[in-house]
Input
Amino acid sequence: MVVLLAPWAAWSQPATSPVVVLDERTNLIEGGQVTGWQWIDGLGTAALEQVLPGKASWQPLDPEAIHTLGARSALWMRIRVSRPRDSTKGWLLEFPLPLLDQVTLHQQDSYGRWIAQTGGDTVAVDQWPEPGRYPFFRLQVPPGESRDLYVRIRHLTAVSVPVSFVSESAHDRRLQTQYLGLGVVFGGLILLIAACLAQSRVYRDVTYAWYAAYAGVITLAVGAYTGVAGHLVWPGSGVWADTSQGVLALLAAGAAMLFVRDLSGIAARLRLLDRAVLWAGFAGLVLAAVYMVVERSTGVMLIGGYLLLACFTSFLIAYLAWRRGDVVGLWVLLAYTPLGVAVTLVLARIFGLAAAGWVTQYAVVAAMALQVPLLLVALNLRSRERHGTLIRELALSTQDALTGLLAPHLFNDRLRQVTSRYRRDREDAAVVFIDLVNYNRIKEFHGQPVAEQSLLRSVIKLRRLVRDVDTAARVGESRFALILEGVSARASVTDRVARLIAAGLMPLKGLTPEVTLQFHAAAVILSERLMEPQALTEALDELLASMSQRTRRPIRFIEPEITRPLPLDAGDSVAATEEDSSLPKHTRPPVAS
Output
């Protein structure tokens, strides 16, 4: 019996537990260098007195082992550390896992009393002994002595707990380096959000505002995942610090699907997929609310399934867009590829398929650093396409689609401006209406294509006669209108229109059939006859309608208004009237002899 029980006694009594030596020659002890013992409390009710040597079934410590503790169990670690007599460095025990629910360190003070310190994302960071992104504790081990450290860990999902001993100076350098890298990422994200909001306001493009909202949710989600938000944004709430990671992950996944849907423009081509993605994206809001009230194991399954759905949907939409030749789809595919890999690694760690490490922790941050500029390129390309479409649409509303001349409503606006300017500043101008009088005959005998070609030939000839400051518009099917700035004489108008008429009578070489263009023109000089814009337009219409098709006067003007000189004042008028009335009606001047 003694022989049989001896190995079990040695196993359960870790009196010869390996010692971690905190000497001056090293600054970091982690991974396999950390030796000790571990024990899983299945009921989760054991206190420190129950896990002291001889009261627990200890096993060798494996820092990379994946433990499935659930809501009840707790993981205990026993690590014996010693410091040389000449040691001057201060040391810390780190658990570099921001998502760790709760970790409690039991160590003895200088009087031999056991002191408990607790950290983890279920505890408000303000209540940690050392606030930070992840839990760490300062060790109270005097030089030249050895002490036992007891660690109790609670975590709902499968987890491997990284443990490391680091000197105070090395710890400070690591924190500065980590926050420098995270600061670059978060600074880029915040700058991107500000730039997108500014562009949305300047260009009146709601797409940039949606991307700013999406980037904001992503920023908060990464902040919660890396522990930055718990440390700096909401350090006073342990409940929200623990819940925010899942809530923001669900919101970010839903926002990603909605953003990719809008960016790829699948609504016009794949209506069923578009509706499905729309509902799936808004479902993230509902699932985020559900996650806050359901059991955490169920919530973890919810997060995993929804994140996988979001990744698959984003990849599918981007691939379909790229397959039809849309370059935006290629950029979206490149942006979400590293993020999909990172999310897969995170899910593998959450479900206990991979150990916690630097790669699984910071892969999401690295993926976001790559995703942000790639998505911004895709957004700029899509915005440029949409702005180009809007510009073309605006051009169609302001210009005639066939000839490229101004539309009638813009010509009327220019006409009102010209008449108002003449009343105010007496700036001369002439208004000319020109009809292609044989347009209907051309269309009847040669067809619509030749008739439209005749209109284009007319525009080419018109443009040779007008200056950059003049206005040319198409105000009817075969009628053009000109506003000639600074023209105050009929001769200038007659010269230009005469050259147009002569050019129209000369058929184009090689044109089949040979079609000549016949023009009639009606004009008004504002210095001769100033009228309201509507009355002026009607007068020119009537003047053109009064011309016969074979008239020998194809250029006509509205006659000047007949006016009489007015007397200087009312007294002079009365005096002149009385003087005129007093003269004899049949008076003749005397004849010179």
